[in-house]
Fold this protein.
Amino acid sequence: MLERIHLAIVREVDRQGSLTAAANVLCLSQSALSHTVKKLEHQLGIDIWLREGRSLKLTQAGEYLLGVANRVLPQLAYAEERMREYAKGERGTLRIGMECHPCYQWLLKVVSPYLANWPDVDVDVKQKFQFGGIAALFGYEIDLLVTPDPLYRPGLRFEAVFDYEQVLVVGRKHPLAVTSYVKPEQLADEILIAYPVAIDRLDIYNQFLMPAGIMPKRHKVIETTDIMLQMVASGRGVAALPRWLVEEYARKVEITPVRLGAKGISKQIFLGVREADLDIDYLSAFIGQARQPFSTTDKDTEQRS
Amino acid sequence: MLERIHLAIVREVDRQGSLTAAANVLCLSQSALSHTVKKLEHQLGIDIWLREGRSLKLTQAGEYLLGVANRVLPQLAYAEERMREYAKGERGTLRIGMECHPCYQWLLKVVSPYLANWPDVDVDVKQKFQFGGIAALFGYEIDLLVTPDPLYRPGLRFEAVFDYEQVLVVGRKHPLAVTSYVKPEQLADEILIAYPVAIDRLDIYNQFLMPAGIMPKRHKVIETTDIMLQMVASGRGVAALPRWLVEEYARKVEITPVRLGAKGISKQIFLGVREADLDIDYLSAFIGQARQPFSTTDKDTEQRS
DNA sequence: ATAATTGATTACTTTTTCTCATGGATTGCA
DNA sequence: TGCAATCCATGAGAAAAAGTAATCAATTAT
């Protein structure tokens, strides 16, 4: 039988590079590991490592086991963590995953009052998912998914918690800054600055430019909002961001929001959770808190649509 | 520590409804389960079941553990299944290394029927090796080497799987197109197009031009076969390729093969494997499949020598 | 009532796991 | 090149863990 210790050994030998070093980390003798490994290989009927000289190298089967270890061991570790919390009557860790950049800005505003109300709850924010946020939610990598794209699946529950308008940001001296709204054609000669994500996931493309068959003169990728907006302010290009975010930055940077199309692009942020988790009080409390327009000390922010 | 058996117990007690019944399914005595459960609850510091009369009811922590069990146990079971497949040689990744361009063309023909026969085997093709293909084979970077240059070493086994003739390719209107074979001197005024590899590894040089002390007017390097042959077709140069490959392309492109020298240059493709791997059946199956002239839907291809 | 079933407990046995000591092999360094 | 250090494998025995049998007390079904 494949036991936890076997996975731990595979992972640790890989991390440490040798059986001896792994043994120390695992608080076992080198001999114990050697015996255990031998026995496991015998039971499975296949080698996990190739013995090359005095070092070990994973076989294909070993590589696979390493993958299993890296997936399963964290689940067990988290389960134990959770059990400890149950035992102490404590609250747990709320692991929040995010799939969009504006989500992050929004989250920052929701998290701080939440942390004040739930001092015993830790919040972890993750942003990278190998197989997407939904998979991470199903795989118990995260407990809460913040996303603009809800995907209704059995076992999951999504709820819209925030409406906002996606607008074009231009420098204050930009010709478009004075127009009441912008048409797709008007972007044909612009440099469009965006976050590094697939183009078909950017609203300004799939809801605005693409339907009109227009492409900007150039597409430029920038990681951070601050730099992005400084580029916009200096007239190096335009970008698309949530209106509330733009208005907040507009105090510090020379930028102006402009509506995208006559009707504007309206967006929502959704929270996704596993149905089974809905009775975890600190989790449902987060959703409840997120549902209300966030209380803020920023007057500007209240102008959002 | 939370072990596999603990999760199995939680799941089985839930399924069977009682400790005693679960014990039977798990091939353990009721006493053993009772002990194990007691110990686990003590270690975790929290009850997993509420004892109500003579029956058990999951606590909140227990419910959570049950969820973990239902998620994690199947992963382990699947991993074991996979390991069994690895052990039986039914599954694996066949990492194929290649050292020549014609090898690649040939490989394409062998791989597709193989993949159909071995749906659980992945094929990886690598073409760059820091210390050469043989070293990659020894170093377990690859499992199979496709090469025109066998190198017999202890621990390795090479086998010729394919004979072909290396010919000159010229455009159909080229003066040489009508000759029955070409002499080295006749290439002295030609532009010779070749893949980007060291000149001394090109057969047309080391078996044909160099022995005669002749060099072409110019040596031109091109990456891809398609472009290379279009250049040849348009009269911009000549190239050296396997006859079967030329004949296949001759349907689409205006090119003709011409024998190199009166006797022609005959070549072989070899497969190299580690002797220790010969009993891996999906690997030996590949060699077996490669050994036979590839079955093809291309009639042209059967004309190869 | 009473017979049957369930989980808990104790004492004991068996199995598994771990360590120690040691050896052979490889590698790095003087 | 030769020596020291390091690595993994192995056998024997100690320590720990997990298992069983027998029995008890409590609950449930008839």
Residues 18-20, 30-31, 33-35, 37-38, 51, 53-56 of chain B lie near DNA strand C (CB under 10 Å from a C1'). The interface with chain A takes residues 1-4, 44-46, 60-61, 64-65, 67-68, 71-72, 75-76, 79-80, 82-84, 86-87, 92-93, 140 of chain B (CB under 8 Å).
